[in-house]
Amino acid sequence: LRGRLQANLDEHNRTAGRTFEVAASVGVVASGADFAVSMEDLLSQADTLMYEEKRRRRAARKDSAKVRRND
């Protein structure tokens, strides 16, 4: 799911002709009937993963901006 979403966003960003990019951060957790996990716990885990991804993306953008400034 995450890979398809990212591929679609990448394609959109390549072809949209805009000066900005559309991005999304996603947190995904898996569960099944044999796991005794509440919906609240699943959402909390997914939320934590989403914010970790946001932090990674933000750090990558900052690193990329530093590289461009040093060129």
Can you characterise this structure?
The protein is mainly alpha-helical. The chain contains two helices and no strands. It has helices at 2-15, 39-70. The termini are far apart.
List the helices and strands and how they pair.
Elements: H1 2-15, H2 39-70
Task: Briefly characterize the structure.
It contains 2 helices and no strands. With 71 residues, it is mainly alpha-helical.
* First-to-last CA distance: 36 Å
In DSSP terms, counting alpha (H) and pi (I) runs of 4 or more, how many helices?
2
In N-to-C order, the SSE pattern is HH
Number of strands: 0
Radius of gyration equals 16 Å
List keywords for this structure.
single chain, 71 residues, mainly alpha, 65% helix
